[in-house]
Amino acid sequence: MSKLSRLVYNKPFVLTLYFGLSLFAVVKSVIVNHIHDNYFIYKSGFINLIHQQTPFGPVRGPGHDFFHYGPVFGLIMAPFALLPNGMGVILWVLFNAWALYIAIKLLPLKESYYLPVLLICAHELMTSSSNVEINPFIGALIILSFVFIRDKKDFWAALMICLGTFIKLYGIVGLAFFFLSKDKPKFILSMAFWSVVLFVLPMAISSPSYIIRTYHDWYGDLVQKNLNNVGHSLQDISLMGLIRNIGHVAQLSNITVIIPGMLLFALWYTRYKLYPAIPYQLLLLASTLIFVIIFSSSSESPTYIIAVAGVGIWYMNLNRPVTGLEIFFLVFALILTVFSPSDLFPKSIRVNYVQPYKLKALPVVFIWFKIIYETVTRNFTTENNTYIGVNES
What we know:
Elements: H1 3-8, H2 11-31, H3 37-51, H4 72-81, H5 85-105, H6 115-130, H7 135-150, H8 154-168, H9 184-200, H10 208-229, H11 239-246, H12 254-265, H13 278-294, H14 304-316, H15 324-338, H16 347-354, H17 362-377
Helix pairs in contact: 2-5, 2-6, 3-4, 4-5, 5-6, 5-7, 6-14, 7-8, 7-14, 8-9, 13-14, 13-17, 14-15, 14-17, 15-17
């Protein structure tokens, strides 16, 4: 094993980098008294919930930004919002990092083979943590819905999907794993149960009329947000954004890109005899994590921790030995997707090219199309996938 390989599979090194980069970013913000506005936006979700005030509109905080989440998010934020800001924001960031770590660790990979996935995610996680974003937690919920369905824990898989959906809609993509369920009636009933529970639960510290009104307002808020995303300098980092900005097609409708994307995504379901194969299942998971980002006009730089987790899972799920093209795609993603928002990347290129043309999305789009190609062409019965876990649930 080469020195690089020993480093990649060195657990203390990987975990120190994975958690350490995010911890450094948030502690630094606390020390210099410059906590990111997002934390105050998130905190307002709990405050507005208990005071039954509309959460949608400018937050009375440093950034005067906007809240775009469901009322259940207020309950998630409660333990952190009740703490002093410095302690609350540090624990919030560590909670998100820990959730994603647990989800990746539970993947059906051999022991220690989850470490390269964490390493690939480490810097992108720091980007998300610098913005104290909830996206690592949302990514964790999507991955856990996959893990629990595989483990025949449909009741808990349904909770992961419903919780993600009731917080940020992205979690709904966990339904992509429906056909992996061994007990579909139980799964459907569990979805209904958790939907009711999560709808009613915030009423315990507010009121039924307030929650119903908030969901109505949330719908209008998301519709308006989607309209505002197009042309936004920091959002629409998606396949549609690439086409709009590189091809100068400002009036491009999202649906004209999303529908073909959904048809390509659905090709996974055509090879039903491969459903029990772990590498084929992991291909679906990687595709799902990437799809939800590159086909969303709401995608911004910190959102890409979800897609980069998909990239890491895709790379570790490849047939060995990997090809030169596959290595190129990974390196391309690390350079342009992961490092472009940081000081490790030339600022002039970032400001003049990466941001205006939404180029952060480009490597991930290439990888997603590679995943679709693998979905149709890979022969999983003849591969050397000894690094993949062998225990079928």
